[in-house]
Fold this sequence. Notes:
By secondary structure, this protein is of the alpha/beta class. It has helices spanning 7-14, 33-38, 50-59, 70-78, 128-141, 148-171, 185-198, 200-203, 223-247, 319-330, 337-340, and strands at residues 18-25, 90-92, 107-109, 209-211, 255-257, 279-285, 293-295, 317-318. Strands 1, 5, 6, 7 and 8 form a 5-stranded mixed sheet that branches. A 3-stranded parallel sheet has the order 3-2-4, with helices on one face. The longest helix is centred in the middle third of the chain and has 25 residues, at 223-247.
Amino acid sequence: GLHPGMSGLQALVADGNAALVCNVGTLLEPFDPVAVANGSARAPLGLFSHADQIQQWQTGIADARVTEGWGGRTADLLQGVNAANGISMNISLSGNNVFQSGATVGEYSVEAAGDGAAGINAYDDGTQFGTYRKQVIDSLLTVSQENILRREYRSRLVNAIESQQIFAGALQQAPALGTKFSPGYFSQSLRQIARIISVRAQLGATRQTFFVTVGGWDHHDDVLNQQAEMLPMISSGLLEFRNALNELAMLDAVTTFTTSDFGRTLTSNGKGSDHGWGGHHIVMGGSVNSGTYFGIYPEIKPGNPLDVGRGIYAPTTSVDQYFAELALWFGVPASDLASVLPNVARFYSPASAEMPLGFLRL
C-alpha cells in the first residue's frame, strides 16, 4: 500500500513505470540477528547520525569517512564517453554534494530557473556598459600570471565562463514542454532536468547524472501531518517528470531513484518519530521491472529479530546492492564495479549473471 497522498506514484506503478525497493540501508556485512543479539555484529560508522549516514548513502562506503561519492567514481570511469567541453557528466540542482564528487570529476551546479548555469553578474548583458565590462574582464583574463594560485584562479574562471556559455546556449534551444510542472522546488528541478536531457545532443552528453535534495524529513514532531504535506509533492513531481520523459521519448533511457540517510522508528516518541535504519525507496523509469517490490518487506511484529530496539528495523538490503544495480544499468562494467562500490563483494558478486536485486532491465 501507498500513502493516500501519493496517487501519482500509484499511477506510475500501475503504468509499469515504478517499483519499490524495500528495507534498504547501510551495512558492513549481511545482517545476522544472532550476532546483533550477542553484540558481535559490526555496525556502520556513525549509525543514526545524519551527517554520517547521508555521507555513506552518497559514498557507498559505510566503514570510513571519505570525500568521493559513488556517482563521482562512476563519472571518473565514464566521463570520456561525453564530449570534452568542460561540462561535467554530473549535474547538480542542489549545489555541492559528495555523491557526484570524484577524483577527477565533480558536479556542475545549475539552477532550476532560467538557463540553468549562472554567469558573472551582468557579464555581456547586452547593454553598452555590459559590453565594456565584458571587454575589461576578458582583457584581464588574457594576462599571464606567474603566481600559481593566480594562474589556477584565472584558469578556473575562464573555464567557468566558457562552460556557462556552452550550457546556457544549449538550454536556450530546449523545446517547450507540453507537460505542466507544479510550482514547487522539487517539480521545478525535475522540469529543468527534463530540459537538460532534451539538449543532450547540443551538450555532447550520452551519460548524465542529476542530483536533487529535498530536506525536511526529520519528523521528530507531527510526523503524520508533515508526511501528508510532503509526500504528495514527491509523488506529483515524479509523475510530472515521467510524463515529460515520455514526451521526449526518453523514459527508457532514464532511471530515477530515491536515497535518504535512514528510515524512521516505528514507535512514537510522544509527538513524532526518531532516527531509524532501514527504509523503503522508489525507482522509476522505462527500464524498471514494475508491479511488485524488491528486496524483503519485513514483517512488522513484536519480537522480529530485525527490530534492534524502538521499532528500528535493520536493513535486509544493503546500499551496495541497490547502487550496484543502478551502476550496472548506467554502464559501469562489472569488472569495474568494485572501484565504484568498494564493499560490493560482501553482498553481491560482480561476476554474477544476475542483477543484484532485479528491479532494472539491462
